Please model this.
Amino acid sequence: MIVGVPREIKVAELRVGLKPPAVREFANHGHVVVVETGAGSGVGASDEDYVAAGARIVPTAADVFGTADMLVKVKEPQPAEREMLRRDQILFTYLHLAPDPEQAKDLIASG
Model:
């Protein structure tokens, strides 16, 4: 499985879906992990930390979304991210759908 970790783009969100130790676990179990450059900067994890853990760094969120079988995020996908979702992808994140009917509609349409 290819696991993707995009940089969070929601305003004031500095967390990341997977830190390097979690990436190492995925890699040690035979999975490929792609991480958007700078994704871990808000938690003090550099691109080099991710590479050392076994990840491949890619330049854009589009590269992550276009490659990954499973996306791991902290926050709900923002509108630009929802446009990149594919029907065959797993989205692993926290969703707050009740106050955001547009998000719910977009996610139903993409899945």
Q: What stands out?
A: The longest strand covers residues 32-36. The first helix runs from residue 20 to 28.
